[in-house]
Amino acid sequence: MATDFLPINGTDYVEFYVGNAKQASLYYQHCFGFELVAYAGPETGVRDRASYVVQQNKIRFVLTTSLQPDSEINNHVKKHGDGVKVLALWVDDAKKSFHETVSRGAEIASEPKVLKDEHGEVVVSSIKTYGDTIHTFVERKNYKGVFLPGFQPVKNKLKVTPIGLKYVDHCVGNVELGQMNKWVKFYEDVMGFKLLITFDDNDISTEYSALMSKVVSNGNGYIKFPINEPAKGKKKSQIEEYLDFYHGAGVQHIAIATDDIIHTVSELKNRGVEFLRVPDVYYDDVQQRVGHINEDWKELQKLNILIDRDEEGYLLQIFSKPVQDRPTLFFEIIERNGAKSFGKGNFKALFEAIELEQELRGNL
Ligand code: FE2
């Protein structure tokens, strides 16, 4: 087997460009149980932006806002609304990652640079992916600080209770009609990823809207990126709705893994996170379809959690409503019990639930 030219240790962080990072960080602390761990802004010598770093187990989100009217951050927010700018990948060598991918055709977002402070040094470099989204390679083996040089640790004033969110399971991108294969090829050729699964129209069309999806994954399988494009249906595809409101390609959802979805989702609901609701008829035949599971069916139905099985096991999943006013980014909470797939058996029920919401928004 050829050696992996882009070894990745995992997701390093996800950075969101938002209109108000102070308030957004509180949403992730209060509703999702993240702990505020680091901050950069005027108080730490950064003049043009404020960034809040929140963390729970292996998941790190950075919420960044601009302090100036004309900035790359504000242009992003003006066009896309609050959304994901950076999917950062944790690597052992950020210079090599940059050169390997750029030599294979990646567009440069920023050249490798060494960031230093009293805790050591971090090397970062960035390449462009779909839309205005970028991948930043982060090499932190010589760093002992809380996040990156320039950030200061925060003694959390808000007492948060974590809710069992463990790591980023997968990050999904929506791209324009006809662009899915181009981006799959990008991940294959430029980043050395492998095509894992293809979902076509037959798998996932409902009466109205449809989409096509392909999942790519890196060598060790820690990074999984499904890429969706709209397919022609009777009415507007959920992917088209996203593209219309995001004004282009971007991150559609981030799936976060938990070991106890019943606990995690109960907490999220108590704290005000809203989820898509599938009709109760979904539960009429699900037991027959899925077979024995360890969880209590009644509890799953009460929380509206979806269940699917593949050759290797089963999975439990649920999808939030969009987490900003535009119908763009949302979250998935997933508990895997052996299953490595993505819940294909739930697509129909799920997409019907999404279309109900689209209809309420007048976008179907
Ligand atoms: Fe997903």
Show the helix and strand layout.
Blueprint: E1 10-17, H1 21-30, E2 35-40, E3 49-56, E4 59-66, H2 72-80, E5 83-91, H3 94-103, E6 108-117, E7 120-128, E8 134-139, E9 152-153, E10 165-174, H4 180-190, E11 194-199, H5 201-204, E12 210-217, E13 224-231, H6 238-246, E14 250-258, H7 261-270, H8 286-290, H9 297-303, E15 306-310, E16 313-319, E17 330-337, H10 347-360
Parallel strand pairs: 1-4, 5-8, 10-13, 14-17
Antiparallel strand pairs: 1-5, 2-3, 2-9, 3-4, 6-7, 7-8, 10-14, 11-12, 12-13, 15-16, 16-17
Give your account of this protein's structure.
By secondary structure, the chain is of the alpha+beta class. The chain folds into 2 domains: 10-153, 2,3-Dihydroxybiphenyl 1,2-Dioxygenase, domain 1 (Roll), CATH 3.10.180; 165-361, 2,3-Dihydroxybiphenyl 1,2-Dioxygenase, domain 1, CATH 3.10.180.10. Helix content is 24%, strand content 35%. It has helices at 21-30, 72-80, 94-103, 180-190, 201-204, 238-246, 261-270, 286-290, 297-303, 347-360; strands spanning 10-17, 35-40, 49-56, 59-66, 83-91, 108-117, 120-128, 134-139, 152-153, 165-174, 194-199, 210-217, 224-231, 250-258, 306-310, 313-319, 330-337. The protein has a 9-stranded mixed beta sheet. Strands 11-12-13-10-14-17-16-15 form an 8-stranded mixed beta sheet. It is globular. The mean pLDDT is 94. The structure holds fe (ii) ion (FE2). Fe (ii) ion (FE2) is lined by residues 170, 172, 253, 255, 332, 342.
